Amino acid sequence: MMKCVEHGHEVVALAHAHPPQSADTEELDSFLFQTVGSSAVHAVAECMELPFYHREIRGTAVTQELDYTLTADDETEDLYALLAEVKEHHPDVGGVSVGAIFSSYQGNRVQHVCERLGLTMLPFLWHRDQAELLQEMVAAGVDAILIKVAAMGLGRGDLGQTLGQMAPKLLALHEKYGVHPCGEGGEFESFTLDCPLFKKRIVIDESQVVTHSEDDLAPVMYLSIRRFHLELK
């Protein structure tokens, strides 16, 4: 979103696809969406003082090929319904900010949805050098923490650490094991507490570490945000 604003666009609304309320875990292992941290995503909209639209993820990755064709019960159709609702309330909206860096699987699906809705996909991070991008984000004032780890060399102690704190370790793991410095291989996921677009910052008061799957080399764990508050900047 920061890149969208930098290129002269106006962010008018935020949209989020989240696990069903009946789900017993935040981690759906979705091929398309990040679901860890969903319980606190609405706070990002509050920090930016923007409308917030959300929808349960009802589908699954029915079609797992790289290219996508309209498929019933696929989670891509949840994205379509979500963005269709946004467009209904904001008929002048013309584009969708996309944070994908290297996933053609995700990029192709967002592009498919955008074309059907007459929207332009705005992937300003697409194919950026990840080591360079990581350091750029930190320097630009993105205060984001790791809320999920799933790679060799990452563990419980890294959850809750900021990108700035983790940058040296992530770059070292990139050199040693080929870990993507921005987590594009699913090595980690993050949650933004503050950035220059926010008018308030998110402060986590209570969280819990959840082990999603045991693995001696690369255990999958995530941080479940239980309580938080907002602070004026």
UniProtKB/TrEMBL annotation:
Protein name listed in UniProt: Uncharacterized protein
Organism lineage: Eukaryota, Fungi, Fungi incertae sedis, Zoopagomycota, Kickxellomycotina
